[in-house]
Design goal:
Strand content: 35-45%
Strand order of the largest sheet: 2-3-1-4-5
Largest sheet: 5 strands, antiparallel
CATH class: Alpha Beta
Helix content: 25-40%
Shape: globular
Keywords: Hydrolase
InterPro entries: CRISPR-assoc_prot_Cas2_sub (IPR010152)
Organism: Tritonibacter multivorans
Distance between the termini: 27 Å
Number of domains: 1
EC number: 3.1.-.-
Radius of gyration: 13 Å
Number of helices: 2
Structural class: alpha+beta
CATH topology: Alpha-Beta Plaits
Order of helices and strands: EHEEHEEEE
Protein name: CRISPR-associated endoribonuclease Cas2
């Protein structure tokens, strides 16, 4: 069960209420869960995606450890250009898709 991080920017207050019911808000708009299961993470992202498709305001970024991904991180975004982790000679870079 990997660490999961959600970063929000300029979103409606409902996101904060929902996210704090599942995660710890460590800084304004930054939520962490040290051991969220893949099933909970999938349902969380589905709710956030559904809300964002209706409200269309702000941005959300979901980050979690995925050993099969480059850099062992997976990133999902809403309201921002997609980002991919790229290994450039041992240095991890975030590339906008």
């Amino acid at each position: 069960m990997p660490l999961t991080i959600v970063v929000t920017r300029d979103v409606e207050p409902r996101y904060r209420g929902f996210l704090t019911s599942l995660m710890l808000e460590v800084s304004a708009g930054v939520y962490v869960a040290p051991d969220m299961t893949a099933g909970v993470r999938t349902r969380l992202w589905r709710v956030l995606s559904d809300w964002w498709s209706v409200l269309g305001k702000g941005s959300l970024t979901l980050i979690w450890r995925d050993k099969s991904a480059s850099g062992h991180l997976r990133i999902e975004t809403l309201g921002e250009p997609p980002k991919d982790i790229v290994d450039a000679d041992g240095i991890l870079l975030a590339k906008r898709g």
